[in-house]
Structures are given as structure tokens and as C-alpha cells.
Amino acid sequence: MEPQELRLMLKDLESDLIERKASLSDPDRIKISILLADITTLKVDAIVNAANNSLLGGGGVDGAIHRKAGPGLLEECRRIGGCPTGEACITRGYHLAARWIIHTVGPIWRGGNNGEDDQLACCYRNCFALAEQHGIKSIAFPAISAGAYGFPMERACRIALAEMSTFLEKCDEIEVIAVCFSTKAYLCYIDALRGL
Ligand code: AR6
């Protein structure tokens, strides 16, 4: 596909997304944006890191966040001492534009019958719980587990969006951004939005 065609397609999808948002029961309460971006560049109160149990950094979004935040982040993560799968913890944002980083550890995909869906849903719930506790008003999520941990992107985006909208049903104070690092992720979120 030519880049021009892809741009046009994304433009169509964006209009479709706006219509979709408008068709939800109370559009003023739905504050989910789907954004193609590098999460480390966003000026939001908090960005979420798809970390591992050690919290000591790694590849993917975790590596990008640690590189940009600087060594203070690694030090604080070391003091925390790790994070179980499905849980979350919070640190300062250091050199990032975001004030906070919420670190969560998604499940490694093992075929789908080993509690992966529930663990992934827990990641989102625990991140939102920390966001509420810290008065965070805007939060950006990467597609947790959908990279190195192998969770199928379509399924990961469906779970993410379901948890985001469930949370926003009870708390409409927080702006939620689903960050996509590829057009595939973007298209999966649009599909998931259709299924809401
Ligand atoms: N901004 C937004 N999204 C990103 C960025 C970025 N800068 N970089 C990658 N993604 P992954 P996981 C997307 O692998 O699957 C690490 O080594 C990426 O395209 O970062 O939860 C940790 O230390 C994908 O859609 O996280 C763990 O060991 C999504 O973020 C392990 O990887 C998640 O991909 C965690 O694996």
C-alpha cells in the first residue's frame, strides 16, 4: 500500500472514530483518545510502562521510557524491588514530560488458557487505581503485553478498551489515551471500538 493511501485510510478511520464516539450513550463522558505516537513524548500526568517483574528495564516501551527518563528512574525502580504480574506501581517521571510513570507487568502469552486475559485486565485496573490515588487527570497506555510478551494485538486492544470504558463509567474525571506504536495497533483499537 502506498503511504498516501494509508494516510487517506487513517483519515477515514479517524472520522469513523469521531462518529463512533458520538454514538456512545453519553459522548461527553467518554474520554478515550486513540493516538499513533511515541508514548515517551506525551505531555500527560502519567504514562504507563509495560515493564517486567524486575522493574529494572528492558526493550520495547520499557527501554524507551528508561532511556528518556534517565538513571533516577532505575534507582527508584530498584528501591521498589519488583512487581508481580498484573500489579502496578508508580514512580516519578524524571526527564519525561509526564509527571508520573505507572509501571505494570502484563502477562506473557501462553496460548490464552492460562489466565492471560484476566491478568491483562488487572494491569489496567491497578493502573487506574493508582491514577485515582495520585490525582492523575490524564493517563496514556501502551498496548500492554502486545509486543515482546506476545499477546495477540486484537485481543489485547479489546481488553484494554473494555477496561478503559468500564473505568470511565464510574470516573469521568480522567482523560485516557490509548497509544499505538504501529498502524496495526491503531486498526485493532478502531475494531475494538466498534465492538464496544
Ligand atoms: N511508545 C508507545 N508504544 C510503544 C513504544 C513507544 N515508545 N515502544 C513500543 N511500543 P513491549 P510487552 C509498543 O514489547 O509486550 C520489555 O522488554 C509496542 O509496539 O514494549 O508488555 C519489558 O522489559 C507494543 O505494541 O511490552 C518486558 O520484558 C506495546 O508497546 C517486555 O518487554 C508493548 O510492547 C514486556 O513486553
Strand % is: 15-25%
Helical element count?
Answer: 6
Kindly provide the radius of gyration, computed on alpha-carbon positions and rounded to a whole number of angstroms: 16 Å
The helix-strand sequence is: HEEHHEEHEHEH
The residue ranges in which pLDDT falls below 50 over 5 or more consecutive positions are: 18-25
Question: What's the structural domain tally?
Answer: 1
**Sheet having the most strands:** 6 strands, mixed
Determine the N-to-C terminus distance: 29 Å
**Mean pLDDT, all residues:** 89
Helix content: 40-55%
Strand order of the largest sheet: 1-6-5-2-4-3
Bound molecules: ligand AR6
Structural class: alpha/beta
Oligomer type: single chain
Q: Architecture, according to CATH? A: 3-Layer(aba) Sandwich
Can you say what the CATH homologous superfamily is? Leucine Aminopeptidase, subunit E, domain 1
CATH domain class name: Alpha Beta
How would you sum up this structure in a few lines?
The protein has 196 residues and is of the alpha/beta class. It is 46% helix and 16% strand.
Please characterize this protein's 3D structure.
The chain has a single domain (33-194), classed as Leucine Aminopeptidase, subunit E, domain 1 (3-Layer(aba) Sandwich). The protein has helices spanning 3-23, 60-69, 71-80, 116-133, 153-170, 183-195, and strands at 32-36, 46-51, 88-92, 100-105, 138-141, 175-180. Strands 1-6-5-2-4-3 form a 6-stranded mixed beta sheet, sandwiched between helices. The longest helix is centred in the first third of the chain and has 21 residues, at 3-23. The chain is of the alpha/beta class. It contains 6 helices and 6 strands. Ligand AR6 is lined by residues 38-40, 50-52, 58-62, 64, 106, 142-149, 179, 181-182, 185.
